[in-house]
UniProtKB/TrEMBL annotation:
InterPro entries: Calycin, Fatty_acid-bd, ILBP. One of its GO terms (molecular function) is lipid binding. It comes from the Eukaryota. This is Fatty acid-binding protein 2, liver-like. Gene3D superfamilies: 2.40.128.20. Belongs to the calycin superfamily. Fatty-acid binding protein (FABP) family. The lineage of its organism: Eukaryota, Metazoa, Ecdysozoa, Arthropoda, Hexapoda.
Amino acid sequence: MVQIVGKYQYVSGENFEDYIKSLGKADLADTFLQATPVVEIQQNGEQWVVVVTSQGKTVTATFKPGEVYDEQLPSQGLVFKSVTTKEGNGFKTETTLSADLKAIRVYEFTDTGMVVHLSSNKSDVKAKRTYKRL
């Protein structure tokens, strides 16, 4: 079993700008592209805590798998409803951005880091963000 709990530093991305634009959030693309977040994942029993620090701001999401929770974007202060489920060596998070638009993130963990695969229910555009374990 791969260790999920830990700290991760963003190192690279693929197709991220096109992905943000495909969500209709082109105005946020520059903000996201400049960010180099550090993600810390903690576990307390069934509850998981994800702390994201980016551009001097820190946001925390606390959830139990399968339950709806509020998730805030670090750079914008926007809050969305998300549901995260455990899948294999990681998680799958579905975030409701609007009535008919969901952003999907699949977190894949390895001994050396984390890869986040990004997609949505409305577009074929996919992206990837790679983090190294600290």
